[in-house]
Amino acid sequence: MRLLPQSLFGRLLLFLAGGLIIAQLLSAAILLQDREQALSHAIGGHIAQRIGAIVGLLDTQEPAERQRLVTALDLPPTRLSLDLPWAEQTDTDDRYQTALFRSLLRRQLGANRPFQVEIADDWPPPIATRPAWRSPPRPPRAWTGQEDQPPRAWEDERPPPPPRTAGGPPRHWQHAMMMGLRNFVVQVRLNDGAVITFQQILPEEVIAWPMRLLLTLLVLLVSVAVLAALAVRALTRPLTVLANAAAELGRDIRRPPLLESGPLEVRRAAMAFNTMQERLIRYIEDRDRILAAVSHDLKTPITRLRLRTEMLDDSPSRDKFLADLDDMQRMVQASLDFLRGGEDSEPMAPVDLNALLDCLREDAEDAGQVVEVDGVAAQPLRCRPLALKRCLTNLVDNALKYGQRADIQVRDTPQRLTLSIHDRGPGIPAEELNKVFEPFYRLERSRNQDTGGVGLGLSIARNIARAHGGDLRLRNHPQGGLEAILDLPR
Questions:
Q1: pTM value?
Q2: Is the CATH code 3.40.50.1970 the one for domain 347-489?
């Protein structure tokens, strides 16, 4: 999937972070639900107990004294009224909070006491749509003349209503609605048939979001996420080191071995990599010794045959012998170069590629051939100088031999250096583009019948490119001719 990160570190971090976030959200939801249920039990029990006590007290009072008690008890956040009529509910609220509050009220009021409950979450509160509460006026006190001014009529000493915002409910209730504040409206019939109405508006600090709990969950999530990122980084870092070591192994087989430290699996991987590197070094050393012995054993009899042929009298047979010996010597040398695969004891060193290309161009001009160079290398390339020169010489010679001229284009970036050698020949069939890299492979119809070769030039060039951590590929140019693209890492 394109949306997933490409690196193992990014994917592991994404999965762990996603899992942690989901787990924390589920934990927060469960904790908030448990908190809401606990608050419902505690607050509902307290309100029901208060209502039961007030109802029991009012049942024992006469109507006039009952009104005075209601006026005295009518204080926020519990409001009382004896003036509102009994309003039958049109629908049944079966929410958990409402059912719990009904059961708590029934326990306090008794099974035979008629009452009805309404818990609202929205604006306006249910009781606000009913007739306004009025407290009976109190008579003014007599003025004795000792006060600074005559006493005024008794005013409602309840706090003023909360300020309203334009086009909406009071600001206090707006915040309460956002925080899930609930309005408890209860109507209870007294023994004499009177109706007492209670309205309880829960304060904000009771229903508000538990910011301390949410902050604790957030701190826990961030802490675990940071620790998970560090752990994933520590686990994936050995893979990055191993990948870099494998990439460098193609350039320098004798690079320093990996440190065998860390967890058991990392140590085992490092030990296996170092063992593989040692075996490759021994294999290359054994191969070089065998190649040196074969080279000596083959060149010696060829040299003796050449000396004996040159001692013969001038004849057509003598010239044929010498031509066959030259072909044998070239084939032996090309085979040995291919078997070495571009790997020898030559050390890595920075090379001025621009100077190397100028040298190839001047050599071609001295031979009456055309080589054009377009572009420059921004900085020296670290490589094996003689091997890289051999690779470029093979490619340029191949382009001059089959395409009359070679156009070299240089494209340099901070990560890679690309050389394109384009000739003006007829090209080769698309199905043969990969086969020409096979050792000793020759096209059935040479692009120039007057020329030929052993069939190892492109194979040797690609081996040298791969020994440097790069690659060599061929393609038929859209404007005609064959293009060899040499790609080398910086």
A1: 0.45
A2: no
